Amino acid sequence: MDQGSDPMYSTYISNSVLNACLSYTAMMLNILTIHALRKTSSLPKTLKTLLLSLAVSDLGVGLMVQPLYSALLVENLQQKDAEWIVTVCTFTAGLFAISSFLGVTALSVDRFLAVHLHLRYQELVTHKRVVVAVIILWLFSALIALLSFWDEIILFILLACISTLCVICCTTVYCKIYFAVRRLASRLQHRPRWGQEVRQDADVAVNADKLRKFALSTFYVFLVFLICYLPHTCMLVARILIREQSTSMRTFDLYSLTLVYLNSTLNPVVYSWKIRHIRLAIMNILRKLVFCNN
């Protein structure tokens, strides 16, 4: 095809190349993160399970969605019929996008319960219950994604609704976490203490600091997720309301989708940057790889 014959030519090329590169980084970084999470015994099992679920969804994006998306862009560039690629790509993208939305929301709710329930957290939020919740999360994501084989417009509407509800839920939860930790710190600071109470308050303060750090770490995951997904969520609403899209809207749509897929590469970076246990596990794995190669 001649470059001047299609106004979307450069957009197809750039997004295809970007997703081909990001597919590799998403796969490598998430495989490394999953291995590090499995090796990390110091993280709470509930938090580790939720992070593993999110890492698996990010791995799925790099392993399946981005290669399909790149192939679809090449097919569009050559003006070939690629209906099956569109359907499969929409299904896999919907599956992993919904599981990511729900996974990030589950992370925020888990951190809120850890801060809010204190000692009752381990009693009520057990590892088995979290595993059951993750299984339900994936089954629900697959059920919604199956709509891609029936009606894509309904799928887009549900995606827009789910993403909006998840953003509202996460924002509310992290605000509550912030004020809860702030109240606890203020109470410990101003309360008079004698003898054994000093030691008890010191233990509570250390535990509260750990919870604050874990909550802050997962907040960064949510923040990166929000930055990557919000433009495409707005675009989903525009696609529902406006059937005839201009070239600029189509261009923005493709780049916003690439930004969504970039999230799968950024999440492992956020884990290793903000969560010390994962960072140390990744460094140990890399050291062993270098040692074996040498």
Q: Would you write up a description of this structure?
A:
The protein is mainly alpha-helical and 294 residues long. The chain has helices at 9-39, 45-77, 83-117, 121-124, 127-145, 152-190, 196-241, 247-274, 276-293.
Number of strands: 0
Q: Tell me about the biggest sheet?
A: none
As a whole number of angstroms, the C-alpha radius of gyration is 22 Å
- Approximate strand percentage: under 5%
* Shape annotation: globular
**What separation lies between the terminal Cα atoms?**
48 Å
Element pattern in H and E: HHHHHHHHH
Structural class, judged by helices and strands? mainly alpha
Keywords:
single chain, globular, mainly alpha, 294 residues
Concise synopsis of the structure shown:
The protein has 294 residues and is an all-alpha fold. It contains nine helices and no strands.
